[in-house]
Amino acid sequence: MDFDISLMRDDRCTLVRVKGDIDVVSRARFEEALFEAVAAGEPMVVDMREVTFCDSTGLNAIVAANRRAGEHGTHLALVALPPRVQRVFRITGIDKFIPIHETLREAIGAFPSTTP
């Protein structure tokens, strides 16, 4: 499946929508988009409902973006992982330190409040 990625920003977060295979071929584009979203300084939600495959290079890009988000004082969450993809996150233990949610509303609601 062809890889595609898009960024959408609103007042609550940056939404990164991903479609297709996240692998060695698409990794650079995927990582670049994640890092661009982190640089915006807003919480980021990666919508993976249309991801068909994610290999170790994709996992590494997500871990690197999560680390960078922490360094920038912001947050990253994943949403709507297909069962096949979610299994990879569970087996590798990444789901222990990167939040995975069923819905966008749930992910946004879990971010710490930015209002005093």
SSE inventory with pairings:
Elements: E1 4-9, E2 14-22, H1 27-39, E3 44-54, H2 56-71, E4 76-79, H3 83-92, E5 100-101, H4 104-110
Parallel strand pairs: 2-3, 3-4, 4-5
Antiparallel strand pairs: 1-2
What does the model show?
With 116 residues, the chain is α/β, with parallel strands linked by helices. The chain has a single domain, classed as STAS domain (Transcription Regulator spoIIAA), CATH 3.30.750.24. Helix content is 40%, strand content 28%. It contains four helices and five strands. The protein has a five-stranded mixed β-sheet. α1 packs parallel to α2. The longest helix is centred in the middle third of the chain and has 16 residues. The relative contact order is 0.17. The mean pLDDT is 93.
Helicity, as a percent range: 25-40%
- What is the count of β-strands? 5
**Major sheet strand order:** 1-2-3-4-5
- Give the helix tally: 4
Q: Which structural class fits the helix and strand makeup?
A: alpha/beta
Unreliable runs, pLDDT <50, ≥5 residues? Answer: none
Order of helices and strands: EEHEHEHEH
Average of the residue pLDDT scores? 93
Q: Name the CATH superfamily classification.
A: STAS domain
- β-strand amount: 25-35%
In CATH terms, what is the fold-level topology?
Transcription Regulator spoIIAA
The major sheet is characterized as: 5 strands, mixed
Global Rg: 13 Å
